[in-house]
């Protein structure tokens, strides 16, 4: 197995691990962390697949997509954290309410 | 503080019951197998886009392909992305109450001395990374991340923008990246009828200008996000 597919495999593993955590845990901070792990998995897949050109050079287009993606992920995480603090401020706990009860 | 409350709550986090965990685990494994198959079955000779890129590199104004894609060929993408960053700050500011100046302690002797060494060094390296983006890995986003580190270090050691400059200087920094990018896009529309189609002889300078403003803007946006709310300003109402 080439290193390209090893990276892609690790990326899929991270993505799936994050997806599992996102569904299983109720706490919003864990959910945000899980989404970040999923994002890292996607970036790893992109970076790994960029290197599978026959001439051994990297594909600059997926690299450019990763660069923009990382910065957007940071900004989105910050916004998500602020939203989480707001949920906690309103309902007293950082968990999405099961039913409309406030 | 709030963070402490959160971490206490994390300890008593509810977790789904065993049957649900097993079901979710099974579904997630199936997704993994599907994704693996999708990647395995990708055609190995997909590189047409790369050859298109290599053929038109001489028109891009820079010699590093990633920067060419980011700032020229997929400039629209990057422009919208700068808009997304600005939206994140606007969302943050509209959701949180206005922050009083964060509690910081005046930096100790070691921290102060280290900052005096580090901040100029980080700024210098950021400038180099920005400049090197034309022909080597680097560019606006990397330089912006470096400047963000410098800004967060300054924030953590009791340094703030002068209150009289804060209202307009901070907003100018936040908006400058998107504003210059849109300005460049519109002037190209007016000059040669295509949005973001830089003439090859000017492309290098236009890209450098956009990247310079984008660097400053990205770092200002990320530092503002780190602060987590609109900073207190003279005359602002709560």
From TrEMBL, chain A:
<feature type="transmembrane region" description="Helical">
    <location>
        <begin position="32"/>
        <end position="51"/>
    </location>
</feature>
<keyword id="KW-0812">Transmembrane</keyword>
<keyword id="KW-1133">Transmembrane helix</keyword>
<keyword id="KW-0472">Membrane</keyword>
<feature type="transmembrane region" description="Helical">
    <location>
        <begin position="6"/>
        <end position="25"/>
    </location>
</feature>
<dbReference type="InterPro" id="IPR039428">
    <property type="entry name" value="NUOK/Mnh_C1-like"/>
</dbReference>
<keyword id="KW-1003">Cell membrane</keyword>
<dbReference type="GO" id="GO:0005886">
    <property type="term" value="C:plasma membrane"/>
</dbReference>
<feature type="transmembrane region" description="Helical">
    <location>
        <begin position="63"/>
        <end position="85"/>
    </location>
</feature>
<dbReference type="Pfam" id="PF00420">
    <property type="entry name" value="Oxidored_q2"/>
</dbReference>
<dbReference type="InterPro" id="IPR050601">
    <property type="entry name" value="CPA3_antiporter_subunitC"/>
</dbReference>
<protein>
    <submittedName>
        <fullName>Multisubunit sodium/proton antiporter, MrpC subunit</fullName>
    </submittedName>
</protein>
<comment type="similarity">
    <text>Belongs to the CPA3 antiporters (TC 2.A.63) subunit C family.</text>
</comment>
From TrEMBL, chain B:
<feature type="transmembrane region" description="Helical">
    <location>
        <begin position="168"/>
        <end position="190"/>
    </location>
</feature>
<dbReference type="Pfam" id="PF04039">
    <property type="entry name" value="MnhB"/>
</dbReference>
<protein>
    <submittedName>
        <fullName>Domain related to MnhB subunit of Na+/H+ antiporter</fullName>
    </submittedName>
</protein>
<keyword id="KW-1133">Transmembrane helix</keyword>
<dbReference type="InterPro" id="IPR050622">
    <property type="entry name" value="CPA3_antiporter_subunitB"/>
</dbReference>
<keyword id="KW-0812">Transmembrane</keyword>
<feature type="transmembrane region" description="Helical">
    <location>
        <begin position="139"/>
        <end position="156"/>
    </location>
</feature>
<keyword id="KW-0472">Membrane</keyword>
<dbReference type="GO" id="GO:0005886">
    <property type="term" value="C:plasma membrane"/>
</dbReference>
<feature type="transmembrane region" description="Helical">
    <location>
        <begin position="20"/>
        <end position="40"/>
    </location>
</feature>
<comment type="similarity">
    <text>Belongs to the CPA3 antiporters (TC 2.A.63) subunit B family.</text>
</comment>
<dbReference type="InterPro" id="IPR007182">
    <property type="entry name" value="MnhB"/>
</dbReference>
<keyword id="KW-1003">Cell membrane</keyword>
<feature type="transmembrane region" description="Helical">
    <location>
        <begin position="113"/>
        <end position="133"/>
    </location>
</feature>
<feature type="domain" description="Na+/H+ antiporter MnhB subunit-related protein">
    <location>
        <begin position="114"/>
        <end position="223"/>
    </location>
</feature>
<feature type="transmembrane region" description="Helical">
    <location>
        <begin position="79"/>
        <end position="101"/>
    </location>
</feature>
<feature type="transmembrane region" description="Helical">
    <location>
        <begin position="202"/>
        <end position="227"/>
    </location>
</feature>
């Amino acid at each position: 197995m080439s290193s390209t597919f090893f990276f892609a495999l690790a990326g899929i593993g991270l993505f799936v691990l994050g997806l599992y955590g996102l569904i299983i845990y109720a706490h919003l901070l864990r959910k945000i962390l899980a989404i970040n792990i999923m994002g890292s998995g996607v970036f790893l897949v992109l970076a790994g697949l960029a290197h599978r050109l026959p001439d051994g050079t990297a594909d600059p287009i997926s690299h450019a997509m990763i660069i923009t993606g990382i910065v957007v992920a940071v900004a989105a995480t910050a916004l998500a954290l602020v939203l989480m603090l707001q949920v906690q401020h309103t309902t007293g706990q950082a968990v999405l309410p099961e039913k409309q009860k406030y | 503080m709030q963070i402490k409350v959160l971490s206490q709550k994390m300890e008593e986090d509810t977790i789904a019951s065993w049957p649900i965990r097993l079901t979710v685990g099974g579904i997630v494994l199936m997704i993994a197998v599907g994704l693996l198959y999708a990647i395995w079955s990708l055609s190995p000779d997909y590189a047409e886009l790369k050859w298109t890129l290599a053929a038109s590199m001489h028109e891009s104004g820079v010699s590093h392909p990633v920067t060419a894609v980011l700032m020229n060929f997929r400039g629209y993408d990057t422009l919208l992305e700068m808009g997304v960053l600005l939206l994140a700050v606007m969302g943050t500011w509209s959701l949180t109450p206005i922050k009083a100046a964060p509690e910081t302690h005046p930096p100790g002797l070691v921290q102060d001395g280290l900052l005096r060494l580090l901040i100029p060094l980080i700024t210098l390296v950021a400038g180099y990374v920005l400049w090197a983006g034309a022909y080597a890995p680097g560019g606006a986003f990397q330089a912006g991340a470096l400047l963000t580190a410098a800004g967060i270090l300054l924030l953590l050691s009791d340094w703030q923008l002068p209150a009289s400059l804060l209202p307009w200087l901070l907003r100018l920094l936040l908006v400058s990246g998107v504003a210059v990018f849109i300005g460049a896009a519109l002037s190209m529309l007016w000059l040669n009828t295509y949005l973001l189609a830089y003439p090859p002889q000017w492309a290098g300078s236009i890209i450098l200008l956009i990247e310079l403003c984008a660097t400053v803007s990205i770092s200002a946006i990320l530092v503002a996000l780190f602060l987590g709310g609109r900073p207190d300003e003279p005359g602002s109402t709560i």
